[in-house]
């Protein structure tokens, strides 16, 4: 008897060795794969940014309709605090890399992105951003470059990238030198090169209806304006026609990434109005994506951030008043990014796979898993 007890004790010790932390049950496999994914990235959109946006408006945000919520850890391979390139590369390739790397692993090796992988499998693919289309977040889905600053090299990679549709700024990274301040410093004209390869360039969203093959839409020579400076709501307006276009290009399904790029820039500027107006603009795109997913039934809408920007907190508004807690104020604690975990909001088919606390690289694995790959 005594020996048996010892054996049982050893077995139970072995079973618990390492950590006593309870592990989550494995998520049950999705019965049929998710056909379409709309991945919305609010650059720099931490929980405080979303909280403030909710507090400042009577009607709920579209983000609040997400029914499965997760938290991601955002550190990069070398740094505790990530930049947008390393974070987007974690999403797009499933590996942690160093800050500044676009589509490369920590040793500088090229990694096939989710977008490239899905394109090979026959999916239509789309990228939409309120920054230049060569900026770190969208670039990390199609380019493989050692530094995010190499915009002209990133632009060159878009020439042959399997991107069915892109919408964003930075036409100057593609055009031949327009004047001494604009265009590429070399003699290439990537717009002409792409057109020669069959890419159609449009100048309004309604042109998408008749377009086919590969399509590009430059929304600015450099970065598009902020919402506060008059940018149209093309991010939200482009969701429905882009979906229609992508669906016409492939029966397999589509993968679309749409980015609210300037939420981050409001954070860097410690400008709460800039941050929140960009967040509302982004949330309209979330609403358009959710509306489609609800009707479609085979689409996942995944919303997250690459990191938080500005170290935003929401302390008491007026600490000198008798009731300091009567109003939420705001305070930025940094002009850069922070290491706080950021929420993941999932809606639609396969959404339950995104609940939990995990590394940002798991976004890649979970997306492929729910899509049946
Ligand atoms: Mg970005
Ligand atoms: Zn930033």
User: Can you tell me the CATH class of the domain at 30-145 and 234-315 and 328-370?
Assistant: Alpha Beta
Bound molecules: magnesium ion, zinc ion
| Secondary-structure element string | HEHEHHEHHEHEEHEHHEEEEEH
Helix segment tally: 11
Quick one: biggest sheet? 10 strands, mixed
Structural class: alpha/beta
CATH homologous superfamily annotation of the domain at 30-145 and 234-315 and 328-370: Alkaline Phosphatase, subunit A
Secondary structure: number of strands: 12
Please report the distance between the alpha carbons of the first and last residues. 50 Å
Task: Describe this structure in a few short sentences.
By secondary structure, this protein is of the alpha/beta class.
Key terms:
373 residues, alpha/beta, Alkaline Phosphatase, subunit A, 10-stranded mixed beta sheet, two-stranded antiparallel ribbon, 12 strands, 31% helix, binds magnesium ion, binds zinc ion
Would you write up a description of this structure?
By secondary structure, the chain is an alpha/beta fold. It has a domain at 30-145 and 234-315 and 328-370: Alkaline Phosphatase, subunit A, CATH 3.40.720.10. The protein has 11 helices and 12 strands. It has helices at 2-16, 47-55, 84-93, 114-120, 136-139, 151-159, 190-196, 234-249, 263-268, 272-296, 362-370; strands spanning 36-42, 68-73, 124-132, 165-169, 199-201, 214-218, 254-260, 299-304, 308-309, 337-338, 342-348, 356-359. A 10-stranded mixed β-sheet has the order 5-6-4-3-7-1-8-11-2-12, with helices on both faces. Strands 9-10 form a two-stranded antiparallel ribbon. Helix 8 (234-249) packs parallel to helix 10 (272-296). The longest helix is centred in the last third of the chain and has 25 residues, at 272-296. The chain is globular. Residues 8-16 have low confidence and may be disordered. It binds magnesium ion and zinc ion. Zinc ion (ZN) is lined by residues 44, 84, 264, 268, 309, 337.
């Amino acid at each position: 008897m005594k020996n048996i007890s010892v054996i049982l004790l050893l077995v139970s010790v072995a079973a618990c060795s390492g950590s006593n932390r309870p592990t989550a049950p494995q998520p049950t496999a999705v019965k049929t794969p998710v056909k379409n994914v709309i991945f919305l990235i609010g650059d720099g959109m931490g929980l405080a940014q979303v909280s403030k946006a909710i507090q400042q408006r009577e009607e709920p945000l579209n983000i609040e309709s997400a029914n499965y919520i997760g938290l991601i850890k955002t550190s990069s391979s070398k740094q505790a605090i990530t930049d947008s390139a390393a974070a987007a590369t974690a999403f797009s390739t499933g590996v942690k890399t160093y800050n500044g790397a676009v589509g490369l692993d920590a040793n500088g090796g090229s990694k096939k992105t989710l977008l490239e992988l899905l394109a090979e499998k026959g999916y239509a693919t789309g990228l939409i951003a309120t920054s230049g289309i060569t900026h770190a977040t969208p670039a990390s889905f199609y380019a493989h470059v050692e530094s995010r600053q190499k915009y002209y090299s990133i632009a060159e990679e878009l020439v042959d990238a399997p991107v069915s549709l892109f919408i964003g700024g930075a036409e100057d990274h593609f055009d031949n030198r327009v004047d001494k301040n604009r265009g590429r410093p070399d003699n290439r004209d990537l717009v002409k090169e792409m057109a020669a390869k069959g890419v159609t360039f449009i100048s309004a969203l309604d042109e998408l209806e008749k377009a086919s093959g590969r399509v590009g839409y430059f929304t600015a020579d450099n970065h598009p304006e902020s919402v506060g400076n008059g940018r149209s709501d093309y991010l939200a307006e482009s969701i429905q026609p882009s979906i229609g276009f992508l669906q016409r290009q492939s029966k397999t399904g589509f993968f679309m990434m749409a980015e609210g790029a300037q939420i981050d820039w409001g954070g860097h500027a410690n400008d709460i109005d800039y941050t929140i107006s960009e967040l509302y603009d982004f949330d309209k795109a979330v609403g358009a994506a959710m509306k489609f997913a609800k009707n479609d039934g085979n689409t996942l809408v995944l919303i997250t951030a690459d990191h938080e920007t500005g170290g935003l907190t929401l302390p008491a508004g007026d600490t000198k008043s008798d009731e300091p807690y009567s109003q939420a104020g705001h305070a930025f604690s940094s002009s850069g990014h922070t290491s706080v975990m950021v929420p993941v909001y999932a809606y639609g088919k396969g959404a339950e796979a995104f609940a939990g606390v995990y590394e940002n690289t798991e976004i890649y694995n979970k997306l492929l898993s729910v899509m049946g790959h």
